[in-house]
Structure formats: C-alpha cells, structure tokens
Amino acid sequence: MKRQRCLQLFGTLFLMVLFLSGCWDINPIEDRALALLIGIDRNANVFRLSAQLPTVKNLIQTASSIENREAPVFKPLVIESASLIDCIQQLEDRIYQSSVMGSVKVIVVSPRVARQGMMNVLPLFLRYSMVSPQTLVFSSEDSPEDIVKFEAPLEIQPGIMIYKQLRSPLKLARSFPIELWDFIARVDNQTIDPYLPIIKLDQENKSFILEGLNLFSNGKLVGSLSADESYIFGAITGKVEKSLKEISVNNKKAGFQQVAYKPHIKVIKHGAENSILLEIDSVGTLLEIPPGLADNPQTLKRIKRAMENQLEKEIMPVVKGLQALDSDPVGFRKYMDIAGIKNWRGAYRNIPVEVKVKFNFLNLPKAH
Q1: Closest C-alpha to 284, from 222, 212, 364
Q2: Contact 232, 321 (CB under 8 A)
Q3: In this structure, are residues 198 and 213 in contact, taking their beta carbons and an 8 Å threshold?
Q4: What is the pTM of this model?
Q5: Which is nearest to 238 in space by CA: 275, 256, 265, 257?
Q6: Tell me: the pLDDT tens digits for 268-320?
Q7: Count of CB atoms situated within 10 Å of the CB of 252
Q8: Alpha-carbon distance 15 to 7, whole Å?
Q9: Per residue in 99-121, pLDDT tens?
Q10: At 202, is the secondary structure helix, strand, or coil?
Q11: Burial class of 124 by CB neighbour count within 10 A (0 to 12, 13 to 18, 19+)
Q12: In 113-164, which ranges are E strands?
C-alpha cells in the first residue's frame, strides 16, 4: 500500500516537473520581429512609422562575413496613422511574428516631428514595455524612412551599427549621443535643453554620417549646429575626449591628436551686473612642428598661444548663437540658478559670457 502511494506521488511530481519546466510556452526567435531601428515622421496630423525588422538568419549570424549573409538583410515596414499607438498595432497586423518594440536600439525622428514637439512622441516609448531608457535618439536630415530602408553593405545590422558607431569614444568629436531618458528629463526639468545628433546617408560609401546637432528650446527644434560648430559644443561641454584638431600658425598648419577639453563654468556677480566666465582646460599631442618653423621653445609657445586664441575665437560665436536661439544644451542656466540670479531663465539670452582657454601639450613638459 505504501509502495503504491509512493509510486503515485512520484508520478505526480514527474508530471508537475514536465509541465512546469518553462519551455511549453516559449516564443522562438523565428516567431519574433525584433525592431532594432525605427523612424518617426509626421505630415499634418498623420504619423508615419517605419521599422527595420532583421530577417531571422541574418539576425542570428549578425557577426558573420558578408559572403554568408542572405538577402534581404532586413525587412522595412512603413505604417501611417493618426496615432503612434495605432501605428504599432498596425505593425502587428501586417506580420505573422510578434513585434518586439522593446528591442529598439535607435529612434530616428524627422525635423517635422522635432519642430512640432518631441514630448508628443518620445514619452510613449519610454513607457512602452521593455524599451530601454538608454535607447539612442537621432534626428534625420530629411526623411527617417530613408535611414530605415537604407542597407549598408556591412557585417552587422544597420540599427546595431549606428548604435555602436555613436557609442565609440573615438567618434565623439562632431556628434554626441543622447539617450531617450535624458532627452525627456531635460525637457521636463526645463534647465538644460536637449539636443539631437543628426544622421545622414552616405550614398557614395554606402554608410551613415553622424555629424551636426539639432538644438531645442522647450522641447521643440529651434536651430542646428554644423559639424564644426558641434565640435566646439563638445569642447564647451567636455564631451570631446579624443579628437584631432588643426590650427594655423603663421599661415602654416599644425596638427594635434588626443585633444580633450575640461570646461569650468562660473557666474560672476558685480552688484546688479552678472556675467559668466567659461574657462576651458585643453590638452593635446602635437603631431609635428610645421615646416619652416624652428624647433625651439619659442615656437612651441607660439603654437600654444595660437591654439588658445583660435579656440576662443571659435567658441564665442557658438555661445552667442545658442543664446540667440534661447537654447541652452550646455547648462549655463543651471549655474545661474545656483548663483541666485533672479529670472535666470529670461536673463540667459543677454548675460555676457567671457571665454578663456588654457592649452598644454601632452607630449611636452608643461613649461612649454
């Protein structure tokens, strides 16, 4: 009798282990559509959502050589609707797989969406199940759909390639990443304005160009910075850590590598008069002394002064341009608020800013 009960108990436990193993309701990868890259456009009151869905074989073999890849590498889908939520639902209706929006690595928005206001778009994805707050956000030069549909002949999925490209420290010279959570937090806090890196197509080399920034005020696009101006923005904010820089010394070119910047912002109060002092410590490795210049300490001091003077001349127009747009992605207003300046938000446009740059050679004694 006891033996029979033991056998029954063992049989029951065996069935429980069998059915509760966790594999009976598995969703295999071939039944999932992992949206790695999405684009968002808007014309009047109609949203246009484009999604890049990798084909299963090429997603699994994303590190394989290009010769072993199967075409197409991904399938682009484009949906139009009056709401983004309906666009996502329609995406589900058009594929046999389950779409996985939580796998999104990159979101690209059009200038039209940015001008109408990003807070009508981005918070949805931050609240969407499994979407990472670290998802990168970009602005396209024209249509984000062109970015989503473009297939670069490289070994990894375009969405992953763009993500890796802007995450590399060596790339941070004329374009700088901003994450989904950071953009939304900046708009909500209304102290430091967000920005978006600009992504363009390089048709000739079949790749992507990441350079330039779009600027925002109150969550809406108000202007942009060129590639060179974006480099200066990176210097002002300390985002440039390893870069190349070329200056002119006596009409001759001097090149540097490993150039980095460390900014210091101070609010100077003189009674009712206030001003901002922007001090920047910069370092870099001199590649070579320009031909025709003597290799002596006097020449090195001349190169050092030329670097400092050129940077100061390049920084001032960018700072004034930001003030004219009432866009502050640097954080000047934060320091004004801390310093106790009344109406710091409105005073930002007209507060005087002084720039001082101090440069030192990485490969030479500081005495130079």
Answers
A1: 364
A2: no
A3: yes
A4: 0.84
A5: 265
A6: 988 778 999 999 999 999 998 888 888 888 999 999 999 999 999 999 999 99
A7: 14
A8: 12
A9: 567 678 899 999 999 999 999 89
A10: strand
A11: middle
A12: 136-140
